[in-house]
Write a structure and sequence with these properties.
This protein has helices spanning about 1-15, 20-25, 40-50, 50-75, 80-95, 110-120, 125-145, 145-165, 170-185, 185-195. By secondary structure, the protein is mainly α.
Length: about 210
């Protein structure tokens, strides 16, 4: 029962639609009707600006940290596999939030938060986290595409788990997170292939024609 309640609470924490809430409070808009329509930090950056985007990004990361670190301890479900289940629950909450008709964000920030939370109690995956973040940053700096960077890093995540000799449940977590990211980025993949995916507007990136 403790695990069940912990899963439920973790899902609800992940399901808090921070981008939607911030859009309503900051500009009184429905973020789903602007930009890409996605309920995530990247769309907040595009629609509301840098600082709102940073705030939503941090909050979405925290949504992943709290379940695997604090909620697990509160409900005394502290086995590695139990924490992993809570991590997946939080990301599911973000991706398919009950508060917005089971339509949510793409889970990158919350997945990152879940990995950060796991590194607090599982030291062996700290290097995996560093490799994943480095991969994302390198791809982003070379391409300017947030979506491509997220997809590329997520695809390599299970491999990073394997080459650092992580336990099977952590490798499985990497596979699940990878599947989530690819599924949630189907529309981005189509735009990338057709050359219609927008880049982030930074000085050293050429704008798409």
């Amino acid at each position: 029962m403790s695990l069940f309640f912990a899963i439920f609470v973790s899902y609800l924490i992940g399901a808090v639609p921070t981008a939607y809430i911030f859009g309503k409070l900051y500009k009184k808009i429905d973020i789903r009707k602007h930009g890409s329509g996605n309920v995530g930090a990247t769309n907040v950056f595009r629609v509301l600006g840098k600082w709102p985007g940073i705030i939503v990004l941090v909050l979405d990361i925290i949504k992943g940290i709290i379940p695997v670190w604090l909620i697990a301890d509160v409900f005394s479900v502290t086995l590695p596999l139990e924490r992993i289940v809570l991590a997946v629950s939080a990301v599911c909450g973000h991706n398919w939030t009950i508060f917005l008709g089971f339509k949510g964000g793409k889970g990158i920030a919350t997945s990152l938060g879940a990995l950060i939370g796991l590194t607090i109690v599982i030291e062996s995956i700290r290097f995996v986290l560093l490799l994943t973040v480095f991969t994302w940053l390198l791809c982003f700096l070379l391409s300017g595409f947030v979506s491509l960077s997220s997809i590329f890093a997520s695809i390599l995540l299970p491999g990073f788990m394997i080459i650092t000799d992580q336990d099977f449940e952590l490798v499985l977590l990497g596979i699940v997170f990878c599947a989530f990211v690819v599924i949630r980025h189907k529309s981005n993949i189509k735009r990338l292939l057709s050359g219609r995916e927008p880049k982030v507007s930074l000085p050293f990136f050429k704008k798409n024609n």
